[in-house]
């Protein structure tokens, strides 16, 4: 029965891929769903791209290890997505800029676009990798197959519906995935797990006191998550791209706020499920298995299939959103400036998306940590690009030389501290962002601002001579 539920879920995803394909007739349809989403569809889609494997499988894993404070990672993602709407929403929506490299190009020119494109593609690719790892972890427990073949199955479904219809297919599948996650986590998994663990009283009796402290995971880790995921998510390509699927500026801004609130509650639910899992299964070798193992233990047949589908929904929605973000940067910021509008056609977007997805699959088969894959990528993204992106949007005195110096300094310092302190250490992003800020301010103030420095970001023309308004779509 559980297998039937999961197979039915896959079938629905593939069917929605066909529906999305029928709607994706221009590159704007393929990359931003024609900019036509209302509040519910937009908020649902924004939430699903945030709440992926790191938030669901990884969030429960952190709850298993640290208790309530394990929600720190997802809380920072929630704050980051809220900040996108409040801080960036107006300028981005009015400028028509929906990739991070394009924003830097508007203010600082082509060199910043090239360097940032490489970093953004790496980041989005690695987050996509983390979701494929999570898919393999869940299906391994559900079907008893090795994680590698399980990941390939999930990846194949993602590729079919994503390549077929682009953002329209991804959005339609996101609505279903949002509903499945909401029911599966809040209404099924959370109450069943807590009840099986003896309720909150039983959990308090069995677990260390630190499991119910909001800071039990440690202030250094909370600070690291803040630097990584709050700042990193504010310049996350998948999130920027989703912003432009909204039909209006108000929907884009306030939908992001609503999504942030939902994500914070989701993080708390995951941490509590993980803490209950520590009571029920205290000896797990791999904490990433906690989600699926707890579900298998406490849920009846059929309902377990729904919960597995919820975990798959979390990972698949984020994977598809991030992979299309990576392919959009590739076509929009690497190929289009060199080869013209046809390089960003629907056909080109489909080819780029499949290529990026294939690379993500290969890398996912070589890594084994859901949270770790995201951490490495987010380190580099935040350290290298957060400061110059904020400068491009809000500091008119900033210069192209300052932006390049900032990107290089942040990247180099971050990589050096990864080598010295370890890939998953807390220091790389903090020192990297500090180096980026110092280099950006110092070099910008030492130089002479360009003539466009007096122009607000949302009024800047793009570097091909078009106005700041959203560009016309290239058709297939």
UniProtKB/TrEMBL annotation:
<feature type="region of interest" description="Disordered">
    <location>
        <begin position="456"/>
        <end position="476"/>
    </location>
</feature>
<keyword id="KW-0472">Membrane</keyword>
<dbReference type="GO" id="GO:0022857">
    <property type="term" value="F:transmembrane transporter activity"/>
</dbReference>
<dbReference type="InterPro" id="IPR018212">
    <property type="entry name" value="Na/solute_symporter_CS"/>
</dbReference>
<feature type="transmembrane region" description="Helical">
    <location>
        <begin position="429"/>
        <end position="447"/>
    </location>
</feature>
<feature type="transmembrane region" description="Helical">
    <location>
        <begin position="6"/>
        <end position="21"/>
    </location>
</feature>
<dbReference type="InterPro" id="IPR038377">
    <property type="entry name" value="Na/Glc_symporter_sf"/>
</dbReference>
<feature type="transmembrane region" description="Helical">
    <location>
        <begin position="402"/>
        <end position="423"/>
    </location>
</feature>
<feature type="transmembrane region" description="Helical">
    <location>
        <begin position="217"/>
        <end position="235"/>
    </location>
</feature>
<dbReference type="InterPro" id="IPR050277">
    <property type="entry name" value="Sodium:Solute_Symporter"/>
</dbReference>
<keyword id="KW-1003">Cell membrane</keyword>
<feature type="transmembrane region" description="Helical">
    <location>
        <begin position="351"/>
        <end position="367"/>
    </location>
</feature>
<protein>
    <submittedName>
        <fullName>SSS family solute:Na+ symporter</fullName>
    </submittedName>
</protein>
<dbReference type="GO" id="GO:0005886">
    <property type="term" value="C:plasma membrane"/>
</dbReference>
<keyword id="KW-0813">Transport</keyword>
<keyword id="KW-1133">Transmembrane helix</keyword>
<feature type="transmembrane region" description="Helical">
    <location>
        <begin position="373"/>
        <end position="395"/>
    </location>
</feature>
<feature type="transmembrane region" description="Helical">
    <location>
        <begin position="256"/>
        <end position="277"/>
    </location>
</feature>
<feature type="transmembrane region" description="Helical">
    <location>
        <begin position="151"/>
        <end position="171"/>
    </location>
</feature>
<keyword id="KW-0812">Transmembrane</keyword>
<dbReference type="Pfam" id="PF00474">
    <property type="entry name" value="SSF"/>
</dbReference>
<feature type="transmembrane region" description="Helical">
    <location>
        <begin position="42"/>
        <end position="64"/>
    </location>
</feature>
<feature type="transmembrane region" description="Helical">
    <location>
        <begin position="297"/>
        <end position="330"/>
    </location>
</feature>
<comment type="similarity">
    <text>Belongs to the sodium:solute symporter (SSF) (TC 2.A.21) family.</text>
</comment>
<feature type="transmembrane region" description="Helical">
    <location>
        <begin position="178"/>
        <end position="197"/>
    </location>
</feature>
<dbReference type="InterPro" id="IPR001734">
    <property type="entry name" value="Na/solute_symporter"/>
</dbReference>
<dbReference type="GO" id="GO:0046942">
    <property type="term" value="P:carboxylic acid transport"/>
</dbReference>
<feature type="transmembrane region" description="Helical">
    <location>
        <begin position="114"/>
        <end position="139"/>
    </location>
</feature>
<feature type="transmembrane region" description="Helical">
    <location>
        <begin position="70"/>
        <end position="93"/>
    </location>
</feature>
């Amino acid at each position: 029965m559980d297998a039937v539920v999961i197979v039915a879920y896959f079938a629905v995803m593939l069917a929605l891929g066909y529906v999305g394909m029928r709607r994706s007739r221009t590159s704007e349809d393929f990359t931003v769903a024609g900019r036509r989403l209302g509040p519910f569809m937009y908020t649902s889609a924004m939430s699903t791209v945030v709440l992926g494997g790191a938030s669901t499988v990884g969030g429960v894993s952190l709850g298993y290890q640290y208790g309530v404070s394990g929600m720190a990672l997802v809380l920072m993602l929630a704050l980051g997505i809220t900040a996108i709407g409040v801080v960036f929403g107006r300028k981005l929506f009015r400028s028509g800029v929906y990739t991070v490299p394009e924003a830097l190009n508007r203010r600082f020119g082509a060199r910043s676009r090239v360097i940032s494109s490489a970093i953004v593609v790496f980041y989005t690719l690695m987050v996509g990798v983390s979701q494929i790892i999570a898919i393999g972890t869940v299906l391994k427990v559900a079907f008893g197959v090795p994680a590698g073949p399980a990941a390939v199955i999930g990846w194949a479904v993602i590729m079919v519906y994503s390549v077929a219809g682009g953002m329209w297919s991804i959005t339609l599948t996101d609505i279903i995935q949002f509903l499945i996650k909401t029911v599966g986590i809040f209404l099924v998994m959370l109450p069943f797990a807590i009840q099986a663990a003896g309720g909150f009283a039983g959990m308090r009796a069995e677990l260390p006191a630190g499991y119910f402290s909001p800071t039990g995971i440690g202030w250094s880790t909370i600070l690291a998550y803040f630097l990584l995921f709050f700042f990193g998510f504010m310049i996350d390509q998948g999130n920027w791209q989703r912003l432009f699927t909204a039909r209006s500026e108000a929907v884009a801004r306030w939908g992001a706020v609503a999504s942030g609130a939902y994500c914070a509650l989701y993080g708390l639910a995951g941490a509590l499920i993980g803490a209950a899992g520590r009571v029920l299964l205290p000896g797990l070798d791999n904490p990433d298995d906690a989600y699926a193992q707890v579900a298998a233990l406490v849920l009846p047949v059929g309902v377990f299939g729904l919960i597995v589908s919820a975990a798959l929904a979390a990972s698949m929605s984020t994977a598809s959103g991030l992979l299309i973000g990576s392919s959009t940067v590739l076509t929009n910021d690497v190929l289009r400036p060199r080869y013209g509008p046809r390089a960003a056609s629907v056909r080109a977007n489909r080819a780029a998306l499949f290529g990026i997805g294939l690379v993500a699959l290969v890398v996912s088969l070589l890594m084994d940590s859901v949270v770790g894959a995201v951490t490495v990528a987010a380190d580099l993204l935040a350290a290298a690009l957060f400061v110059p992106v904020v400068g491009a949007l809000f500091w008119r005195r900033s210069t192209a030389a300052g932006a390049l110096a900032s990107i290089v300094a942040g990247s180099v310092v971050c990589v050096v501290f990864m080598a010295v302190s370890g890939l998953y250490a807390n220091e790389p992003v903090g020192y990297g962002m500090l180096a980026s800020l110092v280099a950006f301010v110092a070099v910008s103030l030492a130089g002479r601002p360009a003539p466009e420095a007096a122009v607000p970001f949302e009024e800047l023309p793009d570097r091909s001579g078009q106005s700041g308004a959203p560009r016309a779509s290239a058709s297939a």
